[in-house]
Write a structure and sequence with these properties.
The protein is mainly α and 185 residues long. The protein has a single domain (23-177), classed as dinb family like domain (Four Helix Bundle (Hemerythrin (Met), subunit A), Up-down Bundle). It has helices at 30-49, 68-87, 104-107, 113-136, 154-180; strands at 143-146, 150-153. Strands 1-2 form a two-stranded antiparallel ribbon. A hairpin with a 3-residue loop joins strand 1 (143-146) and strand 2 (150-153). Helix 1 (30-49) packs parallel to helix 5. The longest helix is centred in the C-terminal third of the chain and has 27 residues, at 154-180. This is Mini-circle protein.
Length: 185
């Protein structure tokens, strides 16, 4: 219990009946279910970041470089890796991190309007590529080569991406609450 008085809790999401994240199918086609759950996780990240600008770069706690902006940059690189590199076989270098600087996605997340705009632009472009790739794929069993795991199917990548977003959205919950007390479904 806080000794500084009651904590302000701003609600990010008020009406669960209109929350599009809850629209993922619960029966039927596997691809529709997986893409619905992934869309819900992506939307959650956007909602956790909504209404913030420079605050997106606020760090969790020292010495961590974890921030909402770092998560956006990280997930742009993750989307790019799995959908462009592994499944589509494209030679697309990481955008925010590298072998030499593996934490560049978080370390470079600074409160600059240009850095913030670039992160969202790149993330949206990678999501659009992934969505188009999944829609055009003949089935969930198509596979690509990953240097770490070997052959991975589109099904596996979709499940992994849902897990990746869900884990990081847990971080986003805590980061957002720390910034302004906002919580949500």
């Amino acid at each position: 219990m806080s000794t500084t008085g009651p904590r302000r809790r701003a609600e990010l999401f008020v009406d669960e009946e209109r929350d599009e994240r809850l629209d993922a199918p619960t029966t039927g086609d596997e691809r529709a279910m997986l893409t619905g759950f992934l869309r819900a996780q992506r939307t959650t990240l956007e909602l956790k970041c909504s209404g913030l600008e420079a605050e997106l770069a606020h760090r969790s706690v020292a010495p961590s470089t974890l921030s909402l902006l770092g998560l956006v940059r990280h997930l742009a690189d993750v989307e790019r890796r799995w959908f462009r590199n592994v499944l589509a076989g494209q030679e697309a270098p990481r955008l925010f991190s590298s072998v030499a600087h593996p934490d560049g996605d978080f370390d470079g997340a600074v409160p600059s309007p240009a850095v913030i705009a670039e992160a969202w632009e790149v993330w949206r472009a990678e999501v659009a590529f992934a969505d188009a790739f999944v829609a055009a794929a003949p089935g969930l069993d198509i596979a690509g080569d990953d240097g770490w795991r070997g052959q991975v199917s589109l099904r596996w990548v979709l499940i992994h991406m849902i897990e990746e977003y869900a884990r990081h959205n847990g971080h986003a919950d805590l980061l957002r609450e720390r910034i302004d007390g906002a919580i949500g479904v």
